[in-house]
Amino acid sequence: MKIRTDFVTNSSSSSFIIARKPKMNDKQKDAILRFVEKELLGKKILGPDSTEEEINKIFEEEWEFHGKDTQEKVRAALKAGKVVYSDWVSFEETEYYYADLFEEVWRIMEENGDGDFEGIETDLSY
Description:
single chain; 4 helices; alpha+beta; elongated; two-stranded antiparallel ribbon
């Protein structure tokens, strides 16, 4: 844990030091992509095979505050063969979540590397 001994402001930042080779290996790229898909791109809500009943249920129960424009865009995406994902971000806890994202990416890079990634100073708490 870092202890600040100098002047402390309202800054919500923390530094880090890592060492890595300029390019990620394929294993690291695949692991990072899986992490991003899981953590940052939402959860599957609807797919092209969703029934009208399932779509209406989502509109009524999950997305009650979204208007007709959003519904039309979702329907068009489904018709185009796309899968619709949704989730939410808590801005009350974003500061901690953001630090967790960095730390998880570094863990993934190290676990999937061949000694080509090293966290030197990665404690983002302050």
